[in-house]
Amino acid sequence: MKLEEMLAKCPKCGSKDKTIQRKMLDEQKAHAELKCIICDECGHIFETKEDEEKREENKS
Question: Which domain of life is it from (predicted)?
Protein backbone atom coordinates (compact mmCIF):
# COMPACT_ATOMS: atom_id res chain seq x y z
CA MET A 1 0.00 0.00 0.00
CA LYS A 2 1.39 3.38 -0.99
CA LEU A 3 1.65 6.31 1.41
CA GLU A 4 -1.16 8.16 -0.37
CA GLU A 5 -3.43 5.15 0.16
CA MET A 6 -2.46 4.94 3.84
CA LEU A 7 -3.42 8.58 4.39
CA ALA A 8 -6.73 8.29 2.51
CA LYS A 9 -10.08 8.18 4.29
CA CYS A 10 -11.95 4.92 4.73
CA PRO A 11 -14.55 4.48 1.97
CA LYS A 12 -17.13 3.22 4.49
CA CYS A 13 -16.86 5.57 7.50
CA GLY A 14 -14.43 8.34 6.49
CA SER A 15 -11.95 7.66 9.31
CA LYS A 16 -8.21 8.02 8.67
CA ASP A 17 -7.17 5.73 11.55
CA LYS A 18 -5.83 2.36 10.44
CA THR A 19 -4.12 -0.59 12.11
CA ILE A 20 -1.52 -2.70 10.35
CA GLN A 21 -1.53 -6.26 11.62
CA ARG A 22 1.72 -8.15 11.11
CA LYS A 23 3.07 -11.61 11.84
CA MET A 24 6.56 -11.71 13.29
CA LEU A 25 8.87 -14.12 11.46
CA ASP A 26 10.33 -16.81 13.71
CA GLU A 27 13.69 -16.95 11.95
CA GLN A 28 14.37 -13.23 12.27
CA LYS A 29 12.66 -11.48 15.18
CA ALA A 30 13.21 -8.04 13.64
CA HIS A 31 11.23 -8.87 10.49
CA ALA A 32 7.51 -9.29 9.97
CA GLU A 33 5.10 -9.97 7.14
CA LEU A 34 1.82 -8.19 6.50
CA LYS A 35 -1.40 -9.83 7.65
CA CYS A 36 -3.84 -7.03 6.81
CA ILE A 37 -4.59 -3.32 7.10
CA ILE A 38 -7.86 -2.54 8.90
CA CYS A 39 -9.87 0.63 9.62
CA ASP A 40 -9.98 1.25 13.39
CA GLU A 41 -13.54 2.61 13.30
CA CYS A 42 -15.57 0.22 11.12
CA GLY A 43 -13.24 -2.74 10.49
CA HIS A 44 -13.03 -2.24 6.70
CA ILE A 45 -10.12 -4.31 5.32
CA PHE A 46 -7.95 -2.25 2.98
CA GLU A 47 -5.32 -4.84 2.07
CA THR A 48 -4.42 -8.40 2.99
CA LYS A 49 -1.32 -10.52 2.55
CA GLU A 50 -2.90 -12.12 -0.53
CA ASP A 51 -3.45 -8.69 -2.13
CA GLU A 52 0.20 -7.83 -1.57
CA GLU A 53 1.35 -11.14 -3.09
CA LYS A 54 -0.84 -10.62 -6.19
CA ARG A 55 0.59 -7.13 -6.68
CA GLU A 56 4.15 -8.52 -6.45
CA GLU A 57 3.33 -11.23 -9.02
CA ASN A 58 1.97 -8.64 -11.46
CA LYS A 59 5.21 -6.65 -11.23
CA SER A 60 7.25 -9.64 -12.40
Answer: Archaea
CB hemisphere CA count around 43 (13 angstroms):
0
Task: Measure CA of the first residue to CA of the last residue in the chain; give whole Å.
Answer: 17
Q: Is residue 14, in this structure, part of any structural domain at all?
A: yes
Q: Which domain holds residue 25?
A: 3-47
- Residue of 23, 20, 21, 18 whose CA lies nearest to 8: 18
Task: Answer yes or no: is 27 within a domain.
Answer: yes
CA-to-CA distance for 1 and 48, rounded, in angstroms? 10
Tell me the whole-structure pTM to 2 decimals. 0.66
Cα–Cα distance for residue pair 49/11, rounded to 1 Å: 20
List, for residues 18-32, the tens digit of each pLDDT value.
998 888 887 776 788
